[in-house]
Specification:
Elements (H helix, E strand, L loop, with lengths): L2 H15 L6 E2 L4 E3 L5 E10 L12 H13 L14 E10 L8 E8 L10 E8 L5 E8 L1 E2 L2 E4 L4 E4 L4 E10 L12 E6 L4 H15 L4 E5 L2 E5 H4 L4 H8 L3 E2 L6 E5 L4 E4 L4 E2 L2 E3 L4 E7 L2 E3 L10 E3 L2 E7 L6 E3 L5 H9 L5 H13 L3 E2 L1 E4 L1
Parallel strand pairs: 16-26
Antiparallel strand pairs: 1-15, 2-12, 3-4, 3-6, 4-5, 5-11, 6-7, 7-11, 8-11, 9-10, 12-14, 13-14, 16-17, 18-25, 19-24, 20-23, 21-22
Length: 368
Amino acid sequence: MNKAFCILLVAAFTFVCQPATATVRLKDMVEFDGVRANDLLGYGLVVGLNGTGDGLRNAPFTEDTMSNILERLGVNVTGEQFRPKNVAAVIVTASLPPFARAGGTVDVTVSAIGDATSLLGGTLVMTPLNGADGTIYAVAQGSILAGGAVAEGAAAREVRGVPTSGVIPGGARVEREIDFSLASLTEVRLALKVPDFSTALQIEHAINLEFAARAARMMDSGTVVLEVPATGARSTAHALARIENLRIAPASRARVVVDQRSGTIVMGEDVRISRVAVAQGGLTLRVEERPLVVQPNPFADGETVVVPRTAAELEDAPPVSLAEVDGGTSLSEIVAGLNALGVAPRDMIDILSSINAAGALHAELIVR
C-alpha cells in the first residue's frame, strides 16, 4: 500500500468520524455588495369605497388631493362643497428589487392615513413612487386586496384583522431603472448577516477552494472580499453564480433569547450552564371584597347603607428545597436539567436571569 493511498484513507476516515454539522448555502448567509432592494414611497388616493372612506372634516388633505386630481382631469371644483365617504388618503410603499428593468412590475402595500375604517373594495388611483433621492422609479395603480373585515350595527362594531391596510400584487410598474452596473465591479464585498470571524474564515477557504486560487480574503468578522479577476470567471455574475450555493457550517455566539411578553425562551446549540443549585418560590397576594348591605328596620326612619368588608390574605408558596442542575454538555442535557425544576416558562425566565447573574450561564442573554 503506497504512502499517498494511506494518507487519503486516513483523511477520509477522519472526515467520516467528524460529527455532522448543519450547513447553509452561502447566499443565505451574506449580502452581495450592491445587490439589494431599494425602498419606494408615495402618497395617493383610494376611491370606490363603500362609505368607509375618510371623513373630510377630519382629513382635509383628502379633499385637497381629490380636488387637484379632478382639476387635472378637467373638472372645475373651485368653491364646490362635496363630502363623499368613498375616498381615502393612503401611503403607498414598495420595494424595488435589484436589477429591476423598466416595464416590470412589483407588489405594493397601501395603508390609510386618515380616519377611513376600511379599504375593502377600493381602487388606488395612479400614484408615483419616489426613491430616497426624490426620483420617480415606479407608478402604482390597481384594486386593493385588504386582509380584514368589519361588521357593525347600531350598538356594536366588530373588527377582524386590519382592514385599513392592503396590498396590490404587481400593482406598480417600473418606469426607471437603478443606475448600477455589476459587470464593472472588480471587487465584490460579501457582508455577513451575522458577523463572526470563524464563519468569515470558512467562507474565504471555501471560495478559494472552489476557484483553486486566492480569490477571496477576509477583511473582518463581517466582510469577505472577492477578487473577480482572480477567479478566472467570464464576468462578475458568473463568479457569484459559482459561489452562492457553496455550503458553509456557520459558527455563532451562544445566545439565550427571552421574550418577556409571550414567555418564549430560545436557546442556541452552544449554550452551556455550569453546575448550580436553584430554589424557586413564590408569594401569592389575594384580596377579596365582600360588601355588606345594612338596611333600617321596617317602618323606621333611615336609609340603606353599604358597609365595605375586605378580606386580604398573603400566602407563601410551599417550601421548595434546593434543586441541583448539573453542568450541561449539550442542549438536551440543559433543557432536561431545567425541566426537572418543574416550573412554568415565565418562572424559567427569572431562573435563567439569576443563573446568568451568578456567572453560571455561559451564553449571551438577550431579553426583549
